[in-house]
Amino acid sequence: MKFINYLEKISNVSFYGLTSFLIFFIFFCAVFIYVLRASKKEMNECSRIPLD
């Protein structure tokens, strides 16, 4: 039996795809806004973490 047959049996399967896309999109936007608003000093401190 193919994988698509299992998905067809789940009711409202499109809801899961939409939900996962929204979670990804919100997370991506939040990280993008954080990077734009962060100061240069804060970014330099974060970049030094692996070396300390």
UniProtKB/TrEMBL annotation:
Keywords: Membrane, Transmembrane, Transmembrane helix. The chain crosses the membrane at residues 15-36. This is CcoQ/FixQ family Cbb3-type cytochrome c oxidase assembly chaperone. The lineage of its organism: Bacteria, Pseudomonadati, Bacteroidota, Chitinophagia, Chitinophagales.
